[in-house]
Design goal:
The complex is a heterodimer. Chain A is mostly helical. Chain A has helices at residues 6-33, 39-65, 71-103, 108-137. Chain A has one domain (6-137). Chain A has four helices and no strands. The longest helix of chain A has 33 residues, at 71-103. Chain A is elongated. Chain B folds into two domains: 2-105, no CATH class; 107-434, 3-Layer(aba) Sandwich (Rossmann fold), CATH 3.40.50.1820. Chain B is 46% helix and 15% strand. In chain B, the strands form two sheets. Chain B has an eight-stranded mixed beta sheet with strand order 1-2-4-3-7-8-9-10, sandwiched between helices. A two-stranded parallel sheet of chain B has the order 5-6. The N and C termini of chain B lie far apart (82 Å). Classes of the chains: A mainly alpha, B alpha/beta. At the A-B interface, helix 2, helix 3 and helix 4 of A face helix 3, helix 8 and helix 9 of B.
């Protein structure tokens, strides 16, 4: 059976993920400036969801092949914890934001709900982008990855 | 000193890991319970209440379970030598996430059901009944992820709140009205009227917060004039998490509620139609749960001799929109406290029990109907909606029954969720084709 080349896999995953994170940020800004039901935003929804799924896969694969005794390995491992914490917080902010804005249309709670959604969304996407960049830029770095 | 500092750091890291591991285990255990609530009917008050919310945010929870599983795997002590343990944990976490996401994954089934209902009722070419210029103002797709995760985009409209329309002793009833900012005639709604009746077991609930106000705003921005009304509620002394104002509570029967809603239709004719440019030749009645029952009684009973003189004759009812509507009076109004809503019992007062069962009120002149029904509704089962549909079809009246797998009671409250998005997509097309 052919062995999976994990380094090659994460190079491709993180490279593609960087592109869709940048697209998600651009479309996210467009969406929050003018939130309407528009077909382009259907594409936006698919894009950011794929970005999230790839982020999860990347954390998993990185955890398997990262050399956690190297200096950069330690740094990347620490960031994977921060990213998971940010991601969980983002999801919680978004879900409560969505609930607030479903029941309250004006006043402080409605504004708070909107802020929670925007902050939650961008923090998960921007931290995801940073984590992907960190991975991608260290792909060829010797000692960061365990030998296959 | 340095070595001692390192020791403290290592020890606090160890404790932090243990705390996080504990939190992960708690989250995954809660996840198992929540997923069971999504999948199986659990006859328990807490589970039923939780099902209202969990089924509407299931994809958020699914993501949380998968993230928690990944964190758990990262925190597992390295001394675990069995390679299969992390694999089993990963498979468990992904399976939990998948099962939890079933309400969203099943969306294509809801869409297919709705398409079949529309094809059967209006023909396979039913979309050609809606001009492109009109359809471009409607939702472009049945489901999208941005509305799910970022909330349903709120549209701008005018809102007037707390307008008094009925007063009797301590009982005061108000309504809110949502209407278009510009000329409604240029929008899909064409100033058609939607009267919305909230739910809450005939004892609780309120207009506004309890009556899907995001949808009210959306429909108003689409050119509809939405009247979100209060009606008298039975004061049986119980309590609920649903906010309910005291001034709507009293010793009220179903006949009183129908009288109050009828009174509203008369005031609409005499006063408010002119104030809000409401098109009385195109009126829809909509409501969820207990509101769905009252909607059905009003909609099908509008021309019934039993309710003669109760409603304004100037309103042309073009459609009835019951949402998870209870149908059988002899099932819902025989036990305390709801038995107080109809005087007597089915044997001593059979006419009232007959007339407050919506399927008995149907006649061939009744308007077309579209029904929302969740298939995981533990409070109002599918047979209620099916009986209403069968009765309408038997009388030659169009009826579309949209069913939603894994949708619990009140599953339309968060408009961005997977059920509500599909519902709104087809609802606005139904409204346009029948106005």
């Amino acid at each position: 059976m052919k062995k999976i080349n994990f380094k090659n896999l994460i190079k491709r995953v993180s490279g593609f993920d960087i592109i869709i994170h940048i697209l998600s940020i651009a479309l996210g800004i467009l969406y929050f400036i003018n939130p309407t039901n528009f077909l382009l935003f259907d594409f936006f929804g698919i894009i950011f969801f794929i970005a999230w799924i790839f982020d999860l896969s990347l954390i998993l694969v990185n955890d398997r092949i990262l050399n956690k005794s190297s200096q950069i390995g330690i740094k990347m491992n620490r960031h994977s914890y921060y990213f998971i914490a940010t991601f969980i917080t983002s999801l919680l902010l978004m879900v409560f934001g969505v609930i607030f804005t479903a029941f309250i249309l004006s006043g402080f709670l409605a504004i708070l709900g909107q802020i929670m959604i925007i902050f939650g969304f961008f923090s998960s996407i921007i931290y995801g982008l940073y984590y992907n960049l960190l991975t991608f830029s260290n792909i060829e770095n010797r000692g960061v990855w365990n030998p296959d | 000193m340095k070595i001692e500092g390192c020791g403290i750091l290592t020890r606090s890291k160890k404790y932090l890991k243990l705390i996080l591991l504990g939190l992960c285990i708690i989250t995954l255990l809660v996840g198992i319970y929540f997923t069971a609530v999504v999948l199986f009917p659990i006859p328990d008050g807490l589970a039923i209440t939780l099902s209202y919310f969990i089924t509407q945010i299931s994809l958020f929870l699914s993501m949380l379970y998968i993230l928690t599983t990944i964190l758990f795997l990262k925190l597992l002590p390295k001394r675990i030598t069995h390679k299969w343990i992390p694999v089993v944990i990963l498979i468990f976490g992904i399976s939990l996430g998948f099962l939890s996401a079933l309400p969203v994954i099943s969306t294509p089934i809801s869409i297919q059901t709705a398409e079949t209902e529309f094809n059967n009722t209006y023909g396979s070419n039913w979309r050609s009944n809606i001009p492109n210029t009109i359809e471009s103002d409607m939702l472009p797709s049945q489901f999208n992820l941005y509305s799910y995760f970022l909330g349903f985009p709120i549209k701008d409209c005018n809102v007037d709140t707390d307008i008094l329309y009925f007063e009797d002793g301590n009982l005061r009833l108000y309504f809110d009205v949502y209407y278009p900012k510009g000329d409604g005639h240029l929008l899909p709604g064409n100033n058609s009227v939607i009267i919305k009746i909230h739910g809450g077991s005939w004892q609780f609930g309120d207009k506004s917060l309890g009556n899907v106000l995001v949808l009210n705003e959306y429909l108003a921005a689409q050119g509809y004039v939405v009247f979100d009304i209060q009606y008298g509620l039975l004061d049986a002394g119980g309590s609920s998490f649903i906010p309910t104002p005291d001034y709507v509570k009293g010793n009220v029967t179903l006949a009183d509620m129908i009288y109050q809603i009828g009174n509203f239709t008369k005031q609409l004719e005499q006063t408010y139609a002119t104030v809000y440019s409401a098109n009385l030749n195109s009126v829809f009645i909509s409501g969820g749960s207990a509101g769905g029952h009252l909607t059905s009684v009003c909609g099908f009973g509008y021309n019934d001799p039993y309710f003669a003189g109760n409603f304004s004759t100037a309103l042309k009812i073009k459609g009835v929109i019951p949402i998870y509507p209870p149908n059988f009076a002899d099932r819902y109004f025989v036990n305390e406290p709801l038995s107080r809503l109809i005087p007597g019992d089915p044997s001593s007062n059979p006419l009232a029990f007959e007339k407050f069962t919506p399927s008995n009120l149907v006649d061939p002149n009744d308007p077309p109907t579209i029904i929302y029904q969740g298939l995981r509704d533990d409070l109002v089962s599918l047979d209620n909606a099916q009986t209403i549909k069968a009765s309408l079809l038997a009388n030659g009246v169009d009826c579309l029954l949209l069913t939603f797998p894994f949708a619990a009671h009140a599953s339309d409250l968060i408009v961005g969720n997977s059920f509500s998005q599909v519902w709104v997509y087809y609802l606005e097309r139904f409204l346009y084709m029948n106005q």
